[in-house]
Amino acid sequence: MRLSKLLANRAEAVIDFGDGDVLHATYYPTRVTGAMIADISALGDAASLSGAEATRVATSVTDILLSLVATWDLTDDTDAVVPLDAAHLAPIGLPVQWAILMGLIRAGNESAKSGAAGSGLPSPTLSVATSSPTA
Dihedral angle at the C-alpha atoms of 78, 89, 40, 113, nearest 10 degrees? Predict the structure, then answer.
């Protein structure tokens, strides 16, 4: 088995923002790392972090999304798909990025609970704080 094959595994997430606004994303569930989980957990308690650490953790959300999301259907006002790169993702507010990230984690947890991962891989449930970041 090749590592590249494991890391290429994709899953679908449907993230509901309410009022009929739904984001569909294809992401890489097997690319979630321990460092990502630590940053996600720390962001849920950002008030207890030093200024520099809170800034580092808050900006890590963009990097995490860029590592995990393969495709999405987020469009701009001209209906063009928003590119998945730092220049286009960084201006999206942290609350929206956080909502997308939590949507990916929820989708992974639901997939693991239902046994629908589809990859033949064990799918442990991720447990992280899901409150909105306070940074």
Answer: 40
Domain that holds residue 17: 3-114
Residue 39 has pLDDT above 70, yes or no: yes
Which residue matches tokens 């999301």?
Answer: 69
Q: Give pLDDT tens digits for 50-74.
A: 888 888 877 889 999 999 999 999 9
Tally of structural domains, the chain: 1
**Could you read off the pLDDT of 78-123 as tens digits, one per residue?**
999 999 999 999 899 989 999 999 999 999 887 666 655 444 444 4
Q: Which strands make up the sheet holding 69-72, listed edge to edge?
A: 11-16, 22-27, 69-72
**DSSP state letters, 17-36:** -STT-EEEEEE-GGG--HHH
Full DSSP string of 59-94: HHHHHHHHHHEEEE--B-TTSPBPPSSHHHHTTS-H
Please indicate, yes or no, if residue 108 is contained in any of the structural domains.
yes
Instruction: Point out which residues pair with 24 in neighbouring strands.
Output: 14
134 located within any domain? no
Residue type at 105 in one-letter notation: I
